[in-house]
Amino acid sequence: MLLRWLNTQAVEPAAGERMLAAVPAHCLRAVADVASHCAREWERLAGALQQGDGRLEAQ
């Protein structure tokens, strides 16, 4: 189930470029902040999976 969901979240490079190009200049900082937050959360998920316990540590 998780792998199927992750697969739906994957972005093809060309699609990512199109999304990036569509962000208005005045929103770039906000979108970058949200993207950074998401990246940190994905890193936490990956770390929990690599540890093998599947539990996320509270931050």
UniProtKB/TrEMBL annotation:
Domain of life: Bacteria
Name under which the protein is recorded: Uncharacterized protein
Organism: Streptomyces tanashiensis
Lineage of the species this protein comes from: Bacteria, Bacillati, Actinomycetota, Actinomycetes, Kitasatosporales
